[in-house]
Specification:
By secondary structure, the chain is of the alpha/beta class.
């Protein structure tokens, strides 16, 4: 704590917290563990003691320098976190409440969850009631809200239908599978790795295809009527066009990820008759809509219907290593950081 004293004034004390800051792009070493001033209480903003957070590919892309004007530097990254309220900023939230925070330019235009404390606008903070541990809860907000949005809202998956998850070993892909399985759907997933294929089958996927970018013929041999929905997590021109060919008539392809490291589209994909292409962005999340959705997700994880799909847990000091694991594409599920 640092106290500043001016003549004839009361001392103003500044408390410091640990946070990972980034002021330039590069390898995981660009994430610098620093002591920075605590975010001050502010009207309409929730000051959160961060207990855990997930690592997301968008944070990796930002660190590599691919986010352009969407992120200003220097910055504390992190598009999600879970923890307890320190100060409610004059809102309905009270100190000690369990909350999650996600998106809304978090970790992009203002500092995010890679810190011991975070100040987040009320509209992107979700109060929760749960007995889940911080490790499990930290795996859920961004991943499951994204999976729910693309599966239920963009694709509109119904009970008993069929779903192709292109990029099935990702944390969002695994969450989409939990949602689809709970609906009694037949699920086909893809991966580029024989080893990861074994993991997906062990997790309960009905079918797993090795993805070389062109799986439509193999998919139709397996599913003679095509699939009702496709979750497109790879996001390259090749896979998007191929995913459209996998969809049944009146089926929907929902784009939600960029695992293929390509996001600058200069093409308009040809679509089979009546097949729809849409996109889901978790930037649209707001507390009014998403709080009951996230509470339902948390309840289903707690009851064992959904899996948290945690691949590896890291300490706060191990955050750069978590980025290295994600960058290596070794993970099959969510990477979570838990603070002491």
């Amino acid at each position: 704590m640092l106290c500043l004293v001016k003549p004839q004034t009361k001392p103003r004390c500044i408390e410091f917290m640990r946070a990972y800051t980034i002021d330039g792009y590069g390898s995981p070493d660009a994430l610098k563990l620093s002591d920075i001033p605590d975010p001050p209480p502010a009207e309409g903003r929730i000051l959160i003691e961060v207990k855990a957070f997930g690592i997301n590919r968008s944070e990796l892309y930002t660190r590599q320098g691919h986010s352009g004007d969407a992120v200003t530097l220097p910055r504390v990254l992190g598009i999600e976190c879970v923890g307890q309220v320190i100060d409610g900023g004059g809102t309905d939230l009270l100190p000690g409440q369990t909350v999650a925070a996600a998106m809304g330019n978090m970790g992009r235009l203002y500092d995010g969850g890679y810190a011991e404390k975070a100040s987040i606008p009320r509209n992107n903070v979700y109060p929760l009631e749960t007995d889940l541990d911080w490790e499990t809860l930290g795996a859920l907000p961004e991943t499951y809200l994204t999976a729910w949005g693309v599966t239920m809202e963009a694709v509109g998956l119904q009970a008993g239908q069929s779903l192709l998850i292109r990029g099935g070993t990702s944390s969002v892909g695994r969450a989409c599978f939990s949602i689809a399985r709970d609906l009694g759907c037949t699920v086909v997933a893809t991966t580029r790795s024989e080893e990861k294929k074994k993991r997906l089958l062990a997790a309960g996927m009905d079918h797993v295809l090795i993805d070389d970018g062109n799986i439509a013929d193999e998919l139709w041999d397996l599913m003679p009527n095509g699939v009702n929905g496709v979750i497109e997590l790879v996001g390259t021109e090749t896979t998007i066009k191929d995913s459209l060919l996998c969809a049944a008539p009146k089926g929907t392809v929902g784009m939600v990820g960029f695992l293929g490291n390509s996001w600058d589209y200069q093409f308009f994909p040809w679509m089979p008759s009546t097949v729809k292409l849409t996109i889901y962005s978790s930037e649209t999340l707001t507390t009014d809509y998403a709080t009951p959705v996230l509470q339902n997700i948390v309840d289903k994880v707690q009851a064992g219907f959904y899996s948290p799909n945690i691949y590896q847990v890291f300490s706060f000091d191990g955050l750069p290593e978590a980025h290295r694991v994600m960058e290596s594409n070794a993970a099959s599920g969510k990477l979570v950081v838990v603070l002491d």
